[in-house]
Amino acid sequence: MKKKYPWVLYVTHDQIFEAAYDAFSVTTPLRKKAFQKIGLKVKVFYSKGERVNFLSELLKILKFIKKMDIVYITVDGSSILEKFSLLKLFNPSLSLIWEIHGQVEEVFWSDRSLKTKLAVIRRNFKRKILSKLVDGSICLDEELKIYSEKQLGIKKSFVIPSFVDDEALREVFNSQEFQKSALGLFLKNKKIFKIIWGGGARFRWQAIDLIEKAARKIYSVDKKIIFLV
Q1: pLDDT tens-digit readout, 149-158
Q2: What Gene3D superfamilies does the annotation carry (predicted)?
């Protein structure tokens, strides 16, 4: 008898959601690869967010939701995708997992107007209600795990830091082209203490301007400490 592998529906952002796509265009294929590695069959649904009618996207998924065993949803500061948790009402046997990237309050970094404050209250209420349907959460750090357990009441919460494809990186770093490149030679220089920082200038809360100021100040004190931003 042929072994039946579980199906996972991975709900994430479409390219049209530009503010997040830079990150999710990288993480989505990595998540898919990770699911397949542990024996899951994967279907990815790219939501266009608030630019399209939610009901139309929901109806598309309902055509195949009975086939799914797990629904895995990206939950971030935009608070756009957790509404797909309602899928569990149409298939109660589903295991519903949230991958928590951030809290709703992140929007305060760019806008502290009354309208935004009211939106945050509304979104937090919505997230709290929908979290009742969740079976477990994957959090990117310990702070988000505390948020998941204490504020959302999700008892099964685990920390798995956002990752990169180690095999692909190793292949690049070991290539002759990289070894001979200026960056490759720089990284091999043991006389320099190197700090590698990754983030996006598009998201103010990632504080790339603060990192730059810190790098300049440290470099003025010790030129053997170099930041790669």
Answers
A1: 999 999 999 9
A2: Glycogen Phosphorylase B
